[in-house]
Design goal:
The protein has 477 residues and is of the alpha/beta class. It has 13 helices and 13 strands. The protein has 2 domains: 355 residues, Alpha-Beta Barrel (TIM Barrel); 106 residues, Methane Monooxygenase Hydroxylase, Chain G, domain 1 (Up-down Bundle), CATH 1.20.58. Strand 2, helix 4 and strand 3 form a beta-alpha-beta unit. The protein starts with 12 loop residues before the first helix and ends in a 16-residue tail after the last strand. Keywords: Disulfide bond, Glycosidase, Hydrolase, Signal.
């Protein structure tokens, strides 16, 4: 029984994680890390089962913080959310009761929390926890669909030993208060960690918790396993680009064509930095590398397409991922702990207009790209009106085109037509195969001009490239 955590199936990984952001190669690191933490346990009384984590469902969520000089009224925020495909909202900081109330009776689930300053008080005894639950949960539930309570944010790395030692007692007291209210099975209790709890996370197969946190983390995970609550962690993917500001790193971050990165310990190849959840700043402060409106638009838009494809991760292909995007609005009064651009992760402006089309509006949700079919007539009409994405005619090497093929086919599109026996296998050249899958990705990603970039190796044409039985679907008609 002591090896329960060590032998986690890969398919359980996305059910264990319920993060707020994402980091390169992080998904697989965490399962290795948990195996490390629990691998030394040798008796059944200390064993941990993660079967309760299997109940979570795939969704796209968003974080909402209120450290801003100007924010929409709660009712306006709710009206905005109703126009999107956002399924869950995490309220950052101490539970904002006006937002909890405003989000009643709509099809959105809520994550609320205790601020770090409240932890010691709630840990002091059952009366304090009951008071918190009675004021922040009971007046609004079930009209407001509260599903998780987070006890603090990045507590273990706060260096405040009093708060650190109070976190588990506070979680236990909140859990007991929920049990008393008959909500213990309906609302889960957890805490949120920073990436600093890991001493190593790249490559993923070498992931390990920081030794100074192992005992505390073990106790927290035992509590969470017993109650089926999710593991939550904050990580900022663009920080990897800041530390390695090369075009290839940026392409890796933004889900754009790249040569991939291989974990040398298990030979698993990664074609993008996202394998759980994330956000990207929309503007730059202090000449910081990476933040920009174009990068945010590319990252979030490609992220959402990646999630909707259900392509999964290199370790768990085809598995759905649970995702919160950071964040709904800019927080201009927030003091950045990770980046000077931390104030500008917003998807929307304070007047609720979007900074860019992220793909979250219900009207912009892209349908699944249909598989190519053989037409009745093998030759397309010469006057077909449309747009197609194809390689530029000159100066593009086969190596670059092969990278485009690898990238496009890793994003969940159907590349079977370019395989042997497929309608587009002949002519069997890299250029021909690249043209087909680049166009298919262009359709899949949203049919926007920036979806036909491929590191400046692609162009949009009005000439239909279909031939014989190989049909290129048009971007517009």
């Amino acid at each position: 029984m002591a090896t329960t955590a060590v032998h986690l199936e890969a398919g359980r990984l996305s059910k264990l994680l319920f993060p707020l952001f994402s980091d390169p190669l992080f998904t697989i690191a965490i399962v290795q890390t948990i195996s490390y933490v629990f691998g030394s346990m040798s008796d059944s009384s200390n064993s941990v089962s993660f079967s309760n984590f299997l109940d979570s469902q795939s969704f796209i969520g968003v974080n909402y913080g209120n450290q801003a000089s100007e924010l929409p009224q709660p009712g306006d925020i709710v009206n905005l959310l109703k126009t999107t495909t956002i399924a869950k909202v995490r309220l950052l900081g101490s539970a904002d009761q006006s937002m909890i109330k405003a989000l009643a009776n709509i099809d959105i689930e809520l994550v609320i929390g205790l601020d770090n300053t409240e932890i010691q008080w709630v840990a002091s005894g059952p009366d304090a926890a009951s008071q918190w639950v009675n004021s922040k949960v009971m007046p609004y539930y079930p009209a407001s669909k509260i599903i998780i309570i987070t006890v603090g944010n990045e507590v273990l790395t706060s260096e405040n030993q009093d708060v650190i030692s109070s976190t588990l007692p506070a979680m236990q007291n909140i859990q007991n208060a929920l049990n008393t209210a008959s909500l213990g099975e309906k609302i889960k209790v957890t805490t949120v960690h920073s990436m600093a709890v890991l001493s190593q996370f790249s490559p993923p197969s070498s992931g390990a918790f920081n030794l100074s946190f192992v005992d505390t983390m073990k106790a927290l995970l035992q509590f969470q396993s017993a109650h089926g609550s999710p593991f939550m962690i904050n990580a900022f993917p663009f920080c990897a680009y800041k530390s390695d500001p090369k075009p290839e790193t940026l392409a890796f971050c933004l889900f754009q064509p790249n040569s991939g990165q291989v974990d040398s310990r298990n030979n698993i190849e990664y074609m993008n930095m996202f394998d759980v959840q994330t956000g990207w700043p929309n503007q730059n402060y202090r000449n910081e590398v990476g933040p920009s409106l174009d990068n945010a638009k590319a990252y979030v838009g490609n992220l959402i397409n990646h999630l909707r494809s259900n392509v999964g991760t290199p370790l768990m292909p085809g598995k759905s991922l649970d995702t919160y995007i950071y964040e709904l609005f800019d927080e201009d009064e927030k003091i950045g702990t990770v980046s000077s651009s931390e104030q500008s992760f917003g998807l929307y402006k304070s007047d609720t207009s979007p900074y860019y089309d992220s793909g979250l509006f219900k009207s912009s949700e892209n349908p699944t790209t249909p598989s190519p079919t053989t037409p009745a007539s093998p030759t397309p009409a010469p006057n077909t009106v449309g747009l197609w994405c194809v390689p530029k005619p000159d100066g593009i090497s086969d190596a670059q085109l092969q990278e485009n093929i690898n990238f496009a086919c890793s994003q969940g599109i159907d590349c079977s037509p370019i395989k042997q026996g497929g309608a587009c296998f002949e002519p069997n050249t890299i250029a021909s195969h690249a043209a087909y899958v680049m166009n298919l990705y262009y359709l899949f990603a949203g049919k926007n001009p920036w979806n036909c970039n491929f590191s400046q190796t692609a162009t949009i044409t009005t000439t239909n490239p279909s031939y014989n039985g190989c049909v290129y679907t048009s971007g517009s008609t």
